[in-house]
């Protein structure tokens, strides 16, 4: 998939934004064809060199950019030539979805296996043991803690897990 097609996808835009942040987004959103130096990118995008370097290293850590070093024979200085590898984005997103699925599954089990109490005044939630330690009174305001039904939350997590498993082509019963 071409850079331009990838970058028009809002999911990929959000993914890149989460990786590099707002200061690095111009770097991620403007990948040049071929190799480019960090100085050239900073000048072309009118950005601070440190912001460009930070974004490039984040992309590198996520297998979305590579570099090669050249040493200037006269000065001994190293020049880094960067290449963007956005063909790896779909695979990275899939890995993120698997991590999300695992975390969501763990949270769902936590919600299913614990009893919660809520202070309706302060909107603070307590596990049963904490509520018992506080004699079922909110430590902030002294209001009684009410038993909390978290079935809607668990159902929402079930639905989201079903969606993720459909997207990943995972048979939940397997």
Automatic annotation (TrEMBL):
The keyword DNA-binding applies. GO terms for molecular function: DNA binding. The keyword Transcription applies. Transmembrane segments: none annotated. Residues 8-90 form the HTH TFE/IIEalpha-type domain. Pfam families: TFIIE_alpha. GO terms for biological process: regulation of DNA-templated transcription; transcription initiation at RNA polymerase II promoter. Keywords: Coiled coil, DNA-binding, Transcription, Transcription regulation. Residues 93-120 form a coiled coil. InterPro entries: TF_E_archaea (IPR016481), TFE (IPR039997), TFIIE/TFIIEa_HTH (IPR017919), TFIIE_asu (IPR002853), TFIIEa/SarR/Rpc3_HTH_dom (IPR024550), WH-like_DNA-bd_sf (IPR036388), WH_DNA-bd_sf (IPR036390). Belongs to the TFE family. Monomer. Interaction with RNA polymerase subunits RpoF and RpoE is necessary for Tfe stimulatory transcription activity. Able to interact with Tbp and RNA polymerase in the absence of DNA promoter. Interacts both with the preinitiation and elongation complexes. The winged helix domain is involved in binding to DNA in the preinitiation complex. PANTHER family: GENERAL TRANSCRIPTION FACTOR IIE SUBUNIT 1, TRANSCRIPTION INITIATION FACTOR IIE, ALPHA SUBUNIT. This is Transcription factor E. It comes from Natrinema salsiterrestre.
